[in-house]
Write a structure and sequence with these properties.
Layout lengths: L17 E5 L33 E5 L14 E5 L5 E5 L5 E4 L12 E9 L5 E7 L6 E7 L6 E8 L10 E8 L6 E7 L4 E5 L2 E6 L15 E4 L3 H4 L5 E4 L4
Parallel strand pairs: 1-2, 1-6
Antiparallel strand pairs: 3-4, 4-15, 5-14, 6-11, 6-15, 7-8, 7-14, 8-9, 9-10, 11-12, 12-13
Bound molecules: 2-acetamido-2-deoxy-beta-D-glucopyranose (NAG) (5 copies).
The site of one 2-acetamido-2-deoxy-beta-D-glucopyranose (NAG) has 5 residues, from loops.
Keywords: Repeat, Signal
Organism: Hypothenemus hampei
Protein name: Thrombospondin-like N-terminal domain-containing protein
Length: about 240
């Protein structure tokens, strides 16, 4: 599927490189944050990161979805607004894999997470979560809070399991509610800052203390899509887009 078009871990020194997690590959962002070329890879990442090291590893978390879909009751193929195929997840969907099958052991200091999602309910949930082996702590993840009449909150989880015993939220961003609307958003994590891009504009920057700068995951960690596993929960009824080849 999409895997071959994405950067894979080919040895080499990760330290100067950045990790890009994508839950989309079709990315038409009028602010030119990142634009997919027509074979689906992200090309113009310069504006996302200000330095001049464009080398990027790209990992598509939707590669975790087994094709053909295992359970048509809880997973379905949808279409995003751009006309690109998308995966849909209903309550009870169970898409889980060892994080090592998709992601590097140690994250780069700076990274970005790009998401194109259409929440199918107002309840929110986890877009994705990498959880420790006990499945009790979210090491890295993105959660959408239940929305109220006007807004919702996007939370970026980032937890050092070697020093913390509970999930840690690195940044919260209040945004307009967007259930039932395809919406693109991205987190750019630099050494100093976490910046949210939402619906085509850079909306907010926070300056949290982030320890360590290079997150390492427990070796038995699992990657969940549209939930954070049976212990933490956070089931998310959502469509997420992906580009098929
Ligand atoms: C796909 O993208 C890569 C990276 O930009 C480019 O070198 C290559 O020519 C593209 N392939 C096609 C078939 O467009
Ligand atoms: C909705 O939630 C946001 C974020 O938590 C909050 O700032 C806002 O006051 C809430 N609005 C209403 C109408 O409850
Ligand atoms: C984010 O929001 C959650 C829930 O309201 C709160 O517990 C947490 O302290 C907040 N974290 C930050 C970094 O703002
Ligand atoms: C995103 O922007 C479009 C065009 O400006 C607007 O129609 C839409 O309501 C916005 N979505 C959200 C969730 O604010
Ligand atoms: C971090 O954000 C602040 C405030 O927006 C900005 O002045 C600063 O240049 C940013 N630092 C980096 C490294 O992007």
């Amino acid at each position: 599927m999409t895997g071959t078009r994405f950067g894979r871990i080919e040895g080499g020194n990760m330290s100067r490189r950045k990790v890009l997690l994508a839950l989309i590959v079709a990315w038409t962002w009028s602010g030119h944050v990142a634009e997919a070329n027509d074979n689906g890879s992200f090309e113009s990442l310069g504006p996302l990161f200000l330095d001049d090291s464009p080398e990027m590893f790209e990992f598509n978390l939707l590669d975790a979805v087994p094709i053909p879909l295992r359970d048509p009751k809880t997973q379905y193929v949808d279409e995003s607004e751009d006309g690109f195929p998308a995966f849909g997840f209903r309550a009870g969907a169970d898409v889980k894999m060892a994080y090592k099958q998709i992601l590097p052991d140690v994250f780069s200091e700076e990274f970005a997470i790009l998401i194109n999602a259409k929440p199918m309910s107002r309840n929110g949930g986890f877009v994705f979560a990498i959880v420790n082996s006990m499945e009790s702590i979210v090491e890295l993840g993105v959660r959408i809070a239940p929305e109220n009449d006007t807004s919702t909150v996007l939370s970026l989880y980032y937890t050092d399991v070697t020093s913390e015993v509970a999930s840690h939220i690195l940044a919260n961003f209040t945004v307009p509610k967007f259930s039932h609307k395809w919406t693109k958003f991205a987190f750019r994590v630099t050494v100093d800052n976490v910046t949210l891009f939402f619906n085509c504009s850079e909306t907010d920057t926070v300056t949290p203390i982030r320890k360590p700068l290079r997150l390492s995951f427990e070796s038995a960690s699992a990657l969940y899509l549209a939930q954070a596993g049976p212990v933490i929960g956070g089931e998310f009824e959502v469509g997420m887009s992906v580009f098929f080849f």
